[in-house]
Amino acid sequence: FMYLSFMILPLHSALKQQRGQLLVIAHLTAGMVDLTRHEKEKHFLTATGEKRLFPSLHDPHSRELSVVVPAYNEELRLPVMMDEAMEYLENRQKQNPSFTYEVIVVDDGSKDKTTEVALRYTRKYSADKVRVLTLVKNRGKGGAVRMGTLSSRGKVILMADADGATKFSDIEKVEGGLNDLNPKPENMAISCGSRAHLEKDSVAQRSLFRTFLMYGFHFLVWFFCVKGIKDTQCGFKLFTREAALKTFSSLHVERWAFDVELLYIAQCFKIPIAEVAVNWTEIEGSKLVPFWSWLQMGRDLVFIRLRYITGAWKLQSSHKTD
């Protein structure tokens, strides 16, 4: 027993010291919420090439729906997604003339012709329906979604991936999930598209290593951040305007793990969250590099929790951007 005590005590002390070092690292490397914009990011172009100022998420809504599409080097995949989305939205407006919408394509510092491709839709449908926000430098998917959301006019705001992996008409499913939450009186609610029902099939098609990474990531999400949501990473989420302002104002993570922090923030604020099954297809051209992206996301998940615990990050009141 004495021998075991001599072995365990130094080990316990070493682990305690390492944990302390990790907390210090998490605190010292924590970046702050960055809502500043470059001057060029404050404007969009009309169909005739005139510059107009983007509105603010703090303004009252003037459209029923905003669709925010983050796009990085998506000149090839974007047209397929946009054609499907615009066909659906235009048909819905014809059937119900009181339905109003906008699509905001956020070019996240692309090196290809993503902005030029997106501006074709502005010229075809007008800048009232399609706007392009071109970021001066690459922020990451989370940063792009946030910048687009903060520039939107919708009563509800949908984030949708540029690859079109989720069938766009499934917006009706996430709208149903949002309505079922009955977000009155503060109008706070989030409805997440989910691929959890497809997991068994995807495991059968994945390598053992990728399956291990996937389950490891799910465990870290559950252990450190978000309880009760099976698929945090599906890029098809619908927010009430109020919930978007509350969550995106506190968002720190701008890359792949941003969805997890968003939902962590929502759960901290007790914002109700629905999870709704959607149709999803694997599209070639993913920007995720399996091993390194999962590693980065795993690190981010640990640091998300540690930084909130140590007070390095705090939940923000909804403040205006510069």
TrEMBL record:
**What is the residue range of the signal peptide feature?**
none
What domain of life does the UniProt record list for this protein's source?
Answer: Eukaryota
Key words of the record = Endoplasmic reticulum, Glycosyltransferase, Membrane, Signal-anchor, Transferase, Transmembrane, Transmembrane helix
Q: Which reaction does it catalyse?
A: a di-trans,poly-cis-dolichyl phosphate + UDP-alpha-D-glucose = a di-trans,poly-cis-dolichyl beta-D-glucosyl phosphate + UDP
Where found, per UniProt?
A: Endoplasmic reticulum membrane
Matching InterPro entries = DPG_synthase, Glyco_trans_2-like, Nucleotide-diphossugar_trans
Any Pfam family hit: Glycos_transf_2
Gene Ontology cellular component?
Answer: endoplasmic reticulum membrane
SUPFAM superfamilies listed in its UniProt record: Nucleotide-diphospho-sugar transferases
The record's Gene Ontology biological-process terms are:
protein N-linked glycosylation
Q: How does it sit in the membrane?
A: Single-pass membrane protein
Instruction: Look at the named UniProt entry and state the broad enzyme category this protein falls under.
Output: transferase
Gene Ontology molecular function, alphabetical: dolichyl-phosphate beta-glucosyltransferase activity
Q: In which pathway does it act?
A: Protein modification; protein glycosylation
The Swiss-Prot or TrEMBL record describes its family as follows: Belongs to the glycosyltransferase 2 family.
Q: Enumerate the PANTHER family for this protein.
A: DOLICHYL-PHOSPHATE BETA-GLUCOSYLTRANSFERASE, GLYCOSYL TRANSFERASE
- Tell me the protein's name: Dolichyl-phosphate beta-glucosyltransferase
